[in-house]
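Interim report, section 4.2 (structural modelling).
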Amino acid sequence: MKRHAWMVVLLALFVAGTAFAKESVVQKKAGDYSVEIKMEKDPPVVGTNRFEIAVTDKDGKAVADAKVQVVASMPAMPGMPAMENKADAKLDGGKYKGKVEISMGGSWNMSVRITKDGKTATAKWTVDAR
Ligand SMILES: [Cu+2]
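Predicted structure of the assembly:
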């Protein structure tokens, strides 16, 4: 019984420790890097979307000295120019964190640009914002 109570406490701590309640998680490769992108909502919402990105190198080590930028873009549509919103991520607790604007609902092209030692690697994916 006592042991069971501890399990509940540990589980509660674990849940409290995760930053976002119903997040979306995307795993991608960018060159030799493995990138895990967590966004606050699943699906991402029209408006401000907080994100957290973990970058690891090909040996599985965390990369903590890169410049990381997130870009959300939408190609031009009839009666609407192309849109592009960029967000710089800041290293915080081993993850790159920031906020990116998604200005309308629909399909957005997302990319993470990781720049280190003068080289940039990019991971791409798409989201359907609501
Ligand atoms: Cu549009």
